[in-house]
Design brief:
The complex is a heterodimer of chains A (291) and B (359). Chain A has 291 residues and is mainly alpha-helical. In chain A, 69% of the residues lie in helices and 4% in strands. Chain A is globular and about 60 Å long. The chains are: A mainly alpha (291), B mainly alpha (359).
């Protein structure tokens, strides 16, 4: 029973990691850049929602408030791409890494400036409500988290596999110049991808906030999402989710059965192991590299 | 504008292009040596810290700037050096032995990490080193017998033959020691770059496959690069430990690693000057912010330093990817060519990205 309870909590946390990882992978898949500020985008999304929903602030109803926050974070993502990231178009990947790290620092600073550094709790309609099923206590928030994740992942999967826009995103990732020649509006596509990624990270942030409290350093959670994305292999959407689930499930079991001090290393240990055995992730897409 | 008539092959790799350049650098070193006579104890401490960061930055620069292997976990090697130095020093080993030992230890750890890191490149390497940096934080706490765990450890004065150097008792001597280390490391770095080893590093950075085709043993040179880089960072760590006096794992958090990388990017990737410029920015910026705050009586905002530093960094990367050193070179060339400099002299070549993924 304890086992099942741990597993359930792990899956719910894993879904949050998976969604943040999905945000990374989305940007990587479409623009070949890695967004180290993804965790901070998630933090920003959670704070936007808090601003809209909490009674101390604007006090909107939950769902319209969430929609507003998603739009706002998507806007931030779009503007970041349009005014900052786009300037680095065609420069080495590494420059974007440094740039997004710096953006993360700035976002964290701004959030701390606006909302302070204390722990805040997001008011959600499903906080503290439990369903009981076969003797297991299942939080409504956990159900919400898993359902949202499944919905988002399948929607994204079909988006990339079936729609014109998804195809255009893949094309612009594989070869920017060729995509231009084929009439793909590469710049606009990049902006849209950043907006989409911002929207997803808002959902991830809200899911995390629904199960605990938030503060501006929440973005550091992004590092665990990195571990998830690496385990799954950058560039694979189902892989990102699987990686997130692995990290999420391993964590509670490690802290239960492995002495403290070693247990919190486990996600990274798994990631390093995966990198050693399969340097490009479990769902690898890089086979060989051209000069 | 000076025209160089090259009359021997050595002209291409000489330490200094001509006597004028050598003169300016000699003047710079002389000014640095004379600096303690002008500054009070507090500012001298800040200047010492700048030198220590410059050494650490040079260490990271060898790996990130000249071998193209980004490391987001270099604070771990800073920690290796600091803890090894503290451990040896507290057991009565003289500084002339313990200091190189600290560097060698950090280098050995780095070389051990290079073996798995060899299989990765680009983003994967950056994230793997990030994870190693985080694991190192926990490892420091776990290795309580050697590191003092959460409580940390303290390190006694530096024992040199005939004298003892302590950061607080003899700040000038400590400054000169750090300056000597920084100058020696910079000279060694410069020599490394003009040797076949340094050229192999740069070749690996520019294209690994091409370097392999030219007969460079990638495994060997990457391991060597990790070793040298981590050893130099370890030396900086040993000095940093003496600078702090007492420290625990919080001095080597993952944010320190990231700050180190941001520092050399601001200074200018791929140049020794860049490490020094970056260290100066990291050292001077908080002072400037404090001074500015006194002027406009700004409320104390937590994290303002980091916020401004990051904003500056964003501006820097967008406007000038070569960092402060790039600006410096441009200004110098503009002056040297005056009035012949052209607008498009430094125009950047655009390139388009192709994926490394095949599916």
């Amino acid at each position: 029973m304890e086992f099942a309870q741990l597993l359930l909590g792990g899956i719910a946390t894993g879904c949050v990691y998976g969604l943040v990882a999905l945000g990374f992978v989305l940007i990587y898949k479409a623009t070949e850049a890695v967004n180290f500020a993804q965790g901070d985008m998630m933090m920003l999304g959670a704070f936007f929602t808090l601003q809209c929903v909490n009674a101390d602030y604007w006090g909107l109803p939950f769902w319209p408030g969430l929609a507003l926050a998603v739009l706002a974070t998507a806007g931030v993502g779009y503007l970041l791409e349009a005014f900052v990231i786009r300037r680095l178009f065609g420069q080495p990947q590494f420059a974007v890494v440094i740039l997004t790290i710096a953006i993360g620092f700035v976002l964290r600073f701004l959030a701390g400036f606006v909302w302070g550094h204390e722990l805040l709790t997001l008011e959600t309609p499903f906080a503290g409500r439990n369903l009981s099923l076969f003797g297991l206590a299942i939080g409504l928030d956990e159900v919400f988290v898993v359902a949202m994740t499944v919905a988002f992942t399948s929607a994204l999967y079909f988006f990339f596999a079936r729609t014109r826009l998804g195809m255009a995103m893949q094309a612009s990732s594989q070869n920017q110049l060729a995509a231009y020649y084929m009439g793909v509006p590469v710049k606009r596509i990049h902006g849209l991808v950043w907006a989409l990624s911002g929207a997803i990270s808002t959902v991830a942030g809200v899911m995390f906030a629904a199960r605990g409290s938030i503060d501006p350093s929440l973005g550091l959670l992004g590092i665990k999402a990195f571990a998830a994305a690496i385990i799954g292999g950058f560039g694979s959407l189902p892989g990102a989710l699987a990686g997130g689930l692995i990290v999420g499930v391993v964590e509670p079991f490690a802290s239960r059965y492995i002495p403290a001090g070693i247990s919190q290393m486990m996600p990274y240990a798994i990631m390093l192991l995966v990198l050693l055995l399969r340097p490009n992730g479990l769902f690898a897409q890089i086979q060989r590299k051209k000069v | 504008m000076r025209i160089h008539q090259k009359t021997s092959y050595d002209d291409d790799i000489n330490l200094f292009k001509d006597r004028y350049q050598a003169f300016w650098y000699a003047l710079l070193v002389a000014a640095a040596v004379a600096l303690p006579l002008l500054l009070d104890a507090y500012r001298l401490g800040e200047a010492t810290l700048v030198l220590i960061w410059a050494v650490a930055g040079m260490g990271l620069m060898i790996l990130a700037g000249h071998t193209g292997q980004a490391s987001l976990g270099h604070a771990a090697f800073l920690a290796c050096g600091a803890y090894m130095e503290a451990w040896l020093n507290n057991r009565g080993v003289p500084f002339l032995l313990s200091f190189p030992a600290a560097g060698l230890f950090a280098g050995a750890v780095g070389a051990a990490i290079a073996v798995p890191a060899m299989r990765m490149s680009g983003i994967y390497l950056a994230i793997a080193t990030l994870a190693m940096g985080i694991v190192a934080e926990d490892a420091i706490v776990l290795l309580e017998d050697y590191t003092g765990g959460v409580g940390g450890t303290s390190v006694a004065a530096i024992r040199l033959p005939g004298m003892e150097i302590d950061r607080f008792a003899t700040p000038r001597a400590f400054y000169w020691l750090c300056l000597a280390v920084a100058v020696l490391v910079a000279l060694g770095y410069r020599n490394l770059l003009r040797s076949p080893t340094g050229r192999a590093f740069v070749a690996i950075r520019d294209s690994e496959v091409s370097a392999k085709a030219m007969g460079i043993n990638i495994t060997r040179y990457k391991t060597l690069s990790f070793f040298i880089s981590c050893a130099v960072t370890g030396l900086a760590g040993a000095l940093f430990g003496h600078y702090l006096g007492a420290f625990n794992y919080e001095a080597f958090l993952i944010t320190v690693s990231i700050q180190m990388l941001l520092m050399i990017v601001v200074g200018g990737m791929g140049s020794i000057h860049g490490a020094f410029f970056g260290a100066i920015v990291v050292g001077v910026l908080p002072q400037l912010i404090t001074a500015a705050r006194q002027q406009i009586t700004l409320h104390a905002v937590p994290g303002l330093d980091t916020g401004i530093f990051a904003a500056l960094l964003i501006a820097m990367i967008v406007i000038e990817p070569l960092g402060l050193y790039g600006q410096w070179v441009k200004a110098r060339i503009w002056l040297e060519l005056f009035p012949l400099a052209r607008r498009d002299l430094f125009r950047r070549q655009r390139s388009y990205l192709k994926t490394e993924r095949l599916k």
